[in-house]
Design brief:
Oligomer: single chain
Distance between the termini: 71 Å
CATH class: Mainly Beta
Largest sheet: 16 strands, antiparallel, barrel
CATH topology: Porin
Radius of gyration: 26 Å
CATH architecture: Beta Barrel
CATH superfamily: Porin
Length: 376
């Protein structure tokens, strides 16, 4: 008689061994998984008309229609380790041609009960914690409006606006962009958070050792504190920050930057203001302040913003004698949400640039711009 029990026992033993192998090789429940990257970012396409008056340059005509683009693709991901730490990465690719900086920001983040650490090419705590009035449309508190107002050929140059008071209150000492740095943020306690940044030099996307004899700016330190709290429907946010580079090559002074901001929100309304200043920063020395109000209702949002900025130099150099320039910009912005991550936005703006330097003409610009902003 054929013995069927033996094959069954062999099959059972084999199945048991295979199952045990899977159990041994499988990750325990709740164990960390390898970091996976997702894709996000934003895309902005703008169409508008600008009218520019520059009596000092009659060889050009900048008035008319224009189309402008701003797109970034963000590669982001994070994983939570068995010890509770969360580790993530953020790499931002410029979606438009940019010979100077095709990768905008690239940094690693570590989060835990201790707070957050950012390591890599990213803005400092001074910049990232700054509080300023809400804006819709292209926004005047960033330097973006310069693209609708000035060029390198206008009487007042379009250089030196981003991350400096002449362009707004979101600043970095020495106008350093996303220089490689180490930043620590404390946990938010009773609405208060502190941020500290250190940057070996002002360079971005560079692993070269900084030479403190010849490098223009080295040993950057930035510190900031911000506050956020909801008082029974009244939301208050405030910030204060300071930054400098401790070493500058040659006899150049060490640049200093400081910024403050305050906003109050209630029932869809917001009012606020921000301030920024540069000292020992050459032609970029100066101050700026922004005041604004905004209102959100249903899918709509409107904003009104005023910016005053000033600096000591023009067009990349200090002219003999007095060389101060001033700007006054006012903008009305609007937004309508078309769907998740999609909004129609627009700006009506006016700017006046003046200088007390002999031979430098005033520049006036008025513009109407509309566009679609996507976030994904």
């Amino acid at each position: 008689m054929r013995n069927y029990a033996q094959p069954k026992r062999v099959l059972l033993q084999t199945t048991t061994l295979v199952a045990a192998g899977f159990i041994v090789s499988a990750a325990p429940a709740g164990a960390a998984e390898k970091l996976k990257i997702g894709v996000g970012g934003y895309a902005e396409q703008w169409f508008g008309y600008t009218d520019i008056e520059d009596d000092g340059n009659t060889d050009q005509d900048l008035s008319g229609f224009d189309v402008k683009s701003d797109t970034e693709i963000h590669f982001k991901g994070s994983t939570k380790l068995d010890n509770g730490l969360e580790v993530g990465i953020n790499v931002q690719l410029e979606g438009n041609s940019n010979s100077g900086d095709q990768i905008d920001e690239s940094y690693l983040t570590v989060r835990g009960n201790f707070g957050q650490i950012d390591i890599g090419d990213e803005n400092s705590a001074l910049y990232k914690t700054h509080v300023a009035p809400k804006e819709y449309g292209i926004g005047i508190n960033s330097g973006d409006t310069v693209q609708w107002e000035l060029t390198g050929n206008t009487s007042i140059s379009d250089s030196g606006y981003f991350r400096a008071p002449f362009g707004g209150t979101f600043i970095e000492p020495g106008r350093a962009n996303d220089s490689t740095k180490l930043t620590y943020y404390t946990p938010r306690i009773e609405g208060i958070r502190v941020g500290l940044s250190y940057s070996p030099d002002s360079e971005q996307d560079s692993n070269v050792l900084p030479d403190r004899e010849i490098s223009s700016l080295t040993d950057g330190v930035m510190a900031a504190i911000d506050y956020s709290h909801d008082f029974d429907g009244v939301k208050v946010a405030a910030s204060a920050g300071y930054g400098t580079f401790l070493e500058a090559s040659g006899d150049n002074p060490e640049p200093e930057a400081y910024a403050f901001g305050l906003t109050v929100d209630y029932a869809g309304f917001q009012v606020g203001g921000s301030y920024a200043g540069f000292r020992d920063s050459g032609i970029n020395d100066g101050d700026a302040y922004v005041v604004g109000a905004a209102y959100d209702f249903d899918k709509f949002g409107v904003s009104a913003t005023y910016l005053h900025g000033e600096r000591d130099g023009l067009a990349g150099s200090i002219a003999s004698g007095s060389a101060q320039a001033d700007r006054n910009t006012f903008a009305l912005g609007g937004r309508y949400i078309l769907g998740p991550g999609v909004s129609l936005q627009g700006t009506l703006g006016y700017s006046e640039y003046t200088s007390d330097t002999a031979g430098v003409s005033d520049v006036e610009a008025a513009y109407a711009v509309t566009g679609i902003k996507l976030t994904f």
